[in-house]
Amino acid sequence: MKKDFIKECLNNDAKAQEKLYRLFAPKMYGICLRFAKNRMEAEDILQDGFIKIFTNLKYFRNEGSFEGWIRRTIINTAINHYKKNLRDLNKIAIEHINITDKTDDDIISKLSVDELIELINELPDGYRIVFNLNVIEGYTHKEIGKMLNISENTSKSQLSRAKHNLKKKIIKLKIRSN
Q1: Residue closest to 71 by CA, chosen among 40, 50, 44
Q2: Reported pTM
Q3: What is the DSSP letter of 93?
């Protein structure tokens, strides 16, 4: 069925293409939201991503997960969206910040998903992208470095700074709610 469905999309069958979009867009939009600064930007990334999906569908080899291939395309689209803003990323010095604290888990567990996404979206572009790629998507710093054309150590530094920044935001939020 998957091959037939893809074949219909490749033959520019509008109904099949719409079905593919409706099937995967909600989940992919969630990914876009994590990378974007706001909903409008997430919608732009989603739109660009699906254009790439339909344009490059002929290159899907029916090996592995189709959803995984779509997810990777969306993530790459989000990365490309921000690459031009990341030129200064390599200029940041590495800091080793220990942010592990048992109270962090308690604070984070009390946040809603929307609150956490909002806090992540407030991070500077470089921090947010590296945080999403490492923590949410599971990429290694080596893989992130290759994707973003940065060093592995810069990726580690960005993640450390993102976590430190998030910790400060979460603590402020906790203070306000008490």
Answers
A1: 50
A2: 0.64
A3: P
Closest C-alpha among 60, 11, 38 to residue 24: 60
At residue 136 the predicted structure's pLDDT band, cuts being 50, 70 and 90, is confident
Give the phi and the psi of residue 94 in degrees, each rounded to 5. Answer: -80, 135
- pLDDT of 36: 86
The fold of 92-177 is Arc Repressor Mutant, subunit A (1.10.10)
**H or E segment to which residue 65 belongs:** none
How much is the pLDDT for 87? Answer: 46
Euclidean distance between CA atoms 47 and 75, whole angstroms: 12
Does domain 2-85 correspond to CATH entry 1.10.1740.10?
yes
Domain ranges of the chain: 2-85, 92-177
**Helix extents (H) in 13-151:** 14-35, 39-56, 66-83, 102-109, 113-121, 125-131, 141-148
Q: Nearest CA to 127 among 101, 107, 99, 103?
A: 99
